[in-house]
């Protein structure tokens, strides 16, 4: 861990129009560059909403949020898209691969939006797919892959743009234990290979054990925030 | 290397190919619209040209004058058309170039092999010049033949076929009525059938003097053909001819005209106007069908955006800007509209060609019409594709990702 804060959220409150209580209420969290952080808590605790705000998919109703030292809580949609493209990679529980695109096309997608040429895009995607053990599946469609393979494609896509922050929402939630462990191993490998910060939303305590730090949320508030050992205890 | 426009189009093409059902439905409406538009333009142009050709057979700078009296009848006060009328028109008509009278009556016409009943016309050599008819073989009789009441005839191609089959008619002899043998000296080039069903090639022309001398001159000519100096002077000629004819027929001021006159060019003008209005109407209907095609594009693209909401959310989450989403959907609309329009051009061309062949219309579709229709179809598709594309671009990524 470098000690430099990549995520710095202060007094985050998030309200939705059709809900009486806020989903997040005065949440503050700082994540250092290179950290692996687990966001935990029961359903409805606000952990996915917090992940969405950290990932610039959504903005807070109140509070400030800085990414890499820059306040991003007031950015417009176009600017938030730019930040996502260049700083953030997403991994979803249900993979969210584009079904009528091939594996290779899925991985090259963020690079396409970043404006890279075809050769560079494909070169980088092929390298990543080989790294995640799917070099032989590049021309396949997502429907032809197993769950574990789909999530490996999603990981390759998430890191293709060389983000600084990798956000995973229940990355093993749709997988069996063995495949889930393989995916976690891959995530840790990817984390180790690049100077990545990894934030994982998970229910799974085994997955949380892999993390440096665990943040517990309940009813939109941070309950505990500490090292895995402390949090677990 | 940066992303190129062709790559954007390439992706749109791949999306279209991977969703053949959706793509075909989107394109179908525009294809029908563009096809109908082209076909309507082509039908209108073909029909107008055909109408014009038929009027041209009657001569373009001609005013026809007929008497109000019935053939060979002495009833009523109307006077026949006579040489005096011809002379008066030639003498006093300032804008009149020439006047050609015509007698036409049904006669028995015999060749060596066969006998037919058909119209035989006694006229002057200028008859074919005024009508702008040309000769297929031989030539027209001349002024000497008229003066000498020569027993010569010029026939149409239908008459030639009926009387002589495949053998050459020029030089052969036909007998008109009971005792007028005429030597064929020329065959007129074919004019084709008229929309009225009249066959302009079923004709026998002989000098008017020959007709009068041997077949019996009726009480007057059936028609006077007045050729004016310029097509723009048709109206003037008609105004000029009225007092000349009234004077020649010695009509008092209170007596109505005992003759009628009309000009094929003026009738053609009316026909052209009517056909232009009809063509415009049909094109309007076709344009509406093109708009309906555009609305079809919008509907299917809206469905497509709804179906692909999650995909839009994913694209947005991984960093696609609203503009990139807009461009993606708009480029899909461009590809589908363009392809649909091109299919429409093909359909329209096919329909036009088949109808033109069936109707015997000449001419064809201009490249400009086809290109214009394709461009219009594409523009309609893109215009109607914009709303769904904008809707896609405005989707909030987080909402789109939650969409089921």
Description of the molecule:
The complex is a heterodimer of chains A (233) and B (404). With 233 residues, chain A is an alpha/beta fold. Chain A has one domain (5-232): Rossmann fold. Chain A is built from eight helices and ten strands. Chain A has helices spanning 47-54, 77-87, 103-113, 118-131, 147-160, 177-193, 205-209, 228-232; strands at residues 5-14, 24-32, 36-40, 62-67, 70-71, 88-91, 165-169, 197-201, 213-218, 221-227. In chain A, the strands form two sheets. Chain A has a six-stranded mixed sheet, sandwiched between helices. Chain A has a four-stranded antiparallel sheet with strand order 2-1-4-5, covered by helices on one side. The mean pLDDT of chain A is 89. Chain B has a six-stranded mixed barrel. Chain B is built from 13 helices and ten strands. Chain B starts with a helix and ends with a helix. Chain B is an alpha+beta fold and 404 residues long. Chain B is elongated and about 105 Å long. In chain B, 56% of the residues lie in helices and 16% in strands. Chain B folds into two domains: 5-54 and 269-402, no CATH class; 69-257, no CATH class. In chain B, helix 1 packs across helix 11. Chains A and B meet through helix 2, strand 6, helix 3 and helix 4 of A and helix 1, helix 10, helix 11 and helix 13 of B.
């Amino acid at each position: 861990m470098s000690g430099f804060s990549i995520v710095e959220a202060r007094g985050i409150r998030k309200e939705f129009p059709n809900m009486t209580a806020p989903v997040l209420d005065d949440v503050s969290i700082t994540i250092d560059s290179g950290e692996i952080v687990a966001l935990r808590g029961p359903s409805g605790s606000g952990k996915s909403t917090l992940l969405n705000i950290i990932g610039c998919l959504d903005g807070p109703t109140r509070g400030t949020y800085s990414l890499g030292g820059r306040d991003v809580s007031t950015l417009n949609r176009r600017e938030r898209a730019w930040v996502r493209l260049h700083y953030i990679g997403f991994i979803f529980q249900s993979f969210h691969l584009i079904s009528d695109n091939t594996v290779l096309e899925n991985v090259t997608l963020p690079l396409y939006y970043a404006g890279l040429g075809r050769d560079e895009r494909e070169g980088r995607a092929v390298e990543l797919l080989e790294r995640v053990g799917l070099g032989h599946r590049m021309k396949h469609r997502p429907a032809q892959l197993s769950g574990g393979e789909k999530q490996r494609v999603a990981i390759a896509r998430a890191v293709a743009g060389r983000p600084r922050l990798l956000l995973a929402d229940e990355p093993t939630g749709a997988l069996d234990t063995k495949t889930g462990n393989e995916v976690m191993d891959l995530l840790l490998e990817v984390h180790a290979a690049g100077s990545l910060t990894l934030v994982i939303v998970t229910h799974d305590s085994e997955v949380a054990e892999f993390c440096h730090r665990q943040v517990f949320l309940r009813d939109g508030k941070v309950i505990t925030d500490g090292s895995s050992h402390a949090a677990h205890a | 290397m940066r992303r190129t426009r062709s790559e954007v189009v390439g992706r749109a093409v791949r999306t279209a190919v991977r969703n053949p059902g959706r793509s075909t439905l989107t394109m179908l409406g525009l294809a029908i619209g563009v096809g109908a538009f082209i076909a309507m333009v082509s039908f209108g142009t073909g029909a107008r040209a055909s109408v014009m050709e038929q009027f041209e057979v009657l001569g373009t700078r001609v005013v026809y004058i007929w008497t109000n009296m019935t053939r060979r009848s002495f009833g009523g006060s109307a006077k026949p058309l006579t040489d005096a009328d011809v002379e008066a028109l030639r003498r006093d008509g300032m804008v009149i170039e020439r006047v050609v009278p015509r007698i036409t009556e049904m006669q028995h016409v015999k060749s060596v092999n066969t006998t037919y009943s058909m119209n035989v016309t006694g006229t002057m050599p200028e008859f074919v010049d005024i009508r702008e008819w040309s000769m297929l073989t031989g030539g027209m009789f001349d002024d000497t033949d008229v003066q000498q009441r020569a027993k010569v005839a010029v026939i149409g191609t239908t008459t030639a076929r009926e009387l002589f089959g495949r053998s050459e008619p020029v030089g052969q002899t036909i007998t008109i009525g009971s005792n007028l043998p005429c030597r064929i000296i020329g065959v007129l080039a074919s004019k084709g059938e008229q929309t009225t069903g009249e066959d302009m090639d079923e004709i026998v022309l002989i000098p008017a003097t020959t007709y009068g001398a041997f077949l019996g001159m009726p009480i007057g000519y059936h028609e006077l053909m007045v050729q004016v100096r310029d097509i723009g002077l048709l109206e003037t000629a008609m105004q000029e001819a009225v007092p000349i004819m009234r004077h020649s027929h010695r009509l008092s001021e209170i007596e109505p005209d005992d003759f009628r006159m009309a000009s094929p060019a003026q009738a053609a003008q009316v026909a052209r106007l009517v056909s232009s209005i009809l063509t415009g109407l049909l094109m309007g209907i076709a344009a509406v069908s093109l708009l309906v095609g555009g609305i079809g594009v919008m509907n299917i693209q809206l469905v497509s955006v709804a179906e692909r909401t999650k995909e839009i959310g994913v694209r947005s989450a991984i960093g696609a800007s609203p503009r990139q989403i807009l461009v993606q959907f708009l480029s899909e609309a461009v590809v589908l509209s363009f392809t649909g329009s091109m299919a429409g051009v093909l359909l329209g061309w096919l329909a036009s060609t088949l109808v033109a062949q069936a109707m015997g219309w000449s001419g064809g579709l201009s490249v400009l019409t086809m290109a214009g229709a394709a461009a219009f179809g594409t523009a309609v598709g893109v215009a109607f594709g914009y709303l769904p594309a904008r809707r896609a671009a405005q989707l909030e990524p987080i909402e789109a990702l939650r969409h089921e």
